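Reminder: ligand-aware prediction takes two inputs, not one.
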Amino acid sequence: VPRTKTSSADPMASSPGVVARARRRTVVGLLPVVVAAVVTVAACSGTSGSGTAAPPGTVSSNGQANGQALYAAKCASCHGADLRGTDRGPSHLSKVYEPGHHSDASFRAAIANGARQHHWAFGDMPPVSGLSPEEVAAIIAYVRTVQGEKGFEPYPPQ
Ligand code: HEC
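Here is what comes back for the chain with heme C:
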């Protein structure tokens, strides 16, 4: 009498060998997930290369500090992801932040020391910690690039 696979009388179905094989298949099936998790962890820890606590994505694939991601992580909460300001800080596209008015040095100083309220009424800017000189340079380069692309808003705002 030919046995069918689903028959409960099939001695193979309950044999330890079959169970073990099924378990192995499950483990093999999970392998890509495990590998992906390990790769993700490795990629994230790679972003803290210079010893600073840079969040994921702040170092681009070529190893350069990623000004856009750093700006998003460290400045956008007050200055806006689009640089146009929030209720906590001014727009970096204001004419007052043109290179001629606020040089790269004034950006470095604001990050290192903070800035007293003087152009606006948002309060003081606190110092921003955890940025290497390379990361600060990348942020400034990013701001200058966006300023060049989008142009400046009048100051005082109209
Ligand atoms: C907690 C909010 C906050 C964060 C975060 C913040 N800023 Fe500011 N920033 C301000 C405020 C408010 C001012 C306006 C001070 C004033 O009245 O002129 C300001 C002003 C500045 C100025 C002008 C300083 C000057 O000399 O007048 C620069 C440059 C600047 N921010 C750059 C940055 C950069 C770059 C980052 C991120 C690395 C950053 N800010 C993060 C709130 C913030």
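The pocket of heme C is lined by residues 74-75, 77-79, 88-90, 102, 106-107, 110-111, 115, 117-120, 122-123, 125-126, 128, 139 (CB under 6 Å). Residues 42-51 have pLDDT under 50 and may be disordered. We will return to this case in the review session.
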